[in-house]
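Hi U.,

Before I forget, here's the chain from the pilot set. I'm dumping it here mostly so it's searchable later in email.
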Amino acid sequence: MRVLGIDPGLTRCGVGIVDVRPDRRATLVDVTVIRTPPGMALEERLLAVGTGIEALLDEHGPAVVAIERVFAQHNLRTVMGTAQVSGVALHSAAKRGLPVGLHTPSEVKAAITGYGSADKKQVQTMVARILGLDEAPKPADAADALAIAICHAWRGGPVAPDAGGAAGSLTPAQAAWRAAERSSRASAAPRRLAR
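Structure:
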């Protein structure tokens, strides 16, 4: 399965593409960082990031897109930029009919290193090891995007129907994760309707 991972950011948006086999072996396809200068108008920055993401989606044809979920930070400006870029990425994926998975930073760290509070250096080291690279891609946004893509494939997130995501190709852990996600969505649905 080919996964395009996005570490959303307005100044630096990391994008990593990996191919992951059912046995969890991952291969690097491409990695880049889309950059925009802080002095550029917001709408132009979002257009530049969106155009870059769309070009990579069209060039590499992933089966699924994985995006780091926006989480609370002390810096509201950073959170807003990250959320806006996430929206652009979600729009680009939806326009192409691609399923999207959202993953928290601690979820990504746990999938890649086995420890949800791992630091950036530990994640970068494991990304390089998993992909068989001599060193982690730089800057950190690039390695983070690859970690998000790998996490998505290993955690059994949404997949395209023809992308090898049938129940038979999942590891037992992935199948259990998917069942738990379905169960939590099903139990949450009645509460939403009751409001």
